[in-house]
Structures are given as structure tokens and as C-alpha cells.
Design brief:
Elements (H helix, E strand, L loop, with lengths): L1 E6 L2 E4 L4 E9 L7 E6 L6 E6 L5 E3 L7 E6 L4 E6 L8 E9 L2 E4 L3 E6 L1
Parallel strand pairs: 2-11
Antiparallel strand pairs: 1-3, 3-8, 4-5, 4-9, 5-6, 7-8, 9-10, 9-11
Length: 115
């Protein structure tokens, strides 16, 4: 089993910045890809960014140039630095970790961007 705990959400004005973190714990040998997804009210969950153990990243077009994903493999932690936030970034942000053939999700952290 893998447990993921996100932190760092909150309320910010448009143009501001927030940083999210997600720490994985439990019984596992290695975490493969880690990432962030988000779900806005009334919308489907969507990819924000992913990162491999080697540091290869992938971003949704909507966040390219504004968000930065990183990870600390020794701490089993993934981060998301969000700059230039827009009201449309308002959503619950979920952490994802791929372990073996399973996907594990955190419970989510709310990010609200006011205009």
C-alpha cells in the first residue's frame, strides 16, 4: 500500500504563486512516474504535469511556462510550483504515484484563485 499526502493548497489572488507538495509513504520498492492532476467543479479530472524518476517532465498546454514540477526521489516527494495563477486554475489538485502496475492517488488539496 502507498499513501500520498498533499499539502500547500489555499487561496491566492490572480497572478500569485503557490507551491504544492506530495509525500509518499508505505510499503513499496520504487515509485515510477509521479504527477499532479486537477479537477474543477463540474469538470473531469485532467492532467497538470508528470515527472519520471529521471526528471523527464510533461505538462498540460494550459500550464506550460507557469507551473514547474519537480521531485526528490530520496524523500519520495513530488512538488508543483505554480506561478502566474489564473482563476481558471481553481480546482482540487490530486497527486498521483505509479508503483508497480498500480496508480495511487492522494485525497486532494484545494487551490482557489480569486480574480
Amino acid at each position: 500500500q502507498v499513501q500520498l499526502v498533499e499539502s500547500g493548497g489555499g487561496l491566492v489572488q490572480a497572478g500569485g504563486s503557490l507551491g504544492l507538495s506530495c509525500a509518499a509513504s508505505g510499503s513499496f520498492f520504487k515509485i515510477h512516474a509521479m504527477g499532479w492532476y486537477r479537477q474543477a467543479p463540474g469538470k473531469q479530472r485532467e492532467l497538470v504535469a508528470t515527472i519520471t524518476p529521471g526528471g523527464t517532465t510533461n505538462y498540460a498546454d494550459s500550464v506550460k511556462g507557469r507551473f514547474t514540477i519537480s521531485r526528490d526521489n530520496a524523500k519520495n516527494t513530488v512538488y508543483l510550483q505554480m506561478d502566474g495563477l489564473k482563476p481558471e486554475d481553481t480546482a482540487v489538485y490530486y497527486c498521483l504515484a505509479d508503483v508497480a502496475v498500480a496508480h495511487y492517488w492522494g485525497k486532494g488539496t484545494l487551490v482557489t484563485v480569486s480574480s
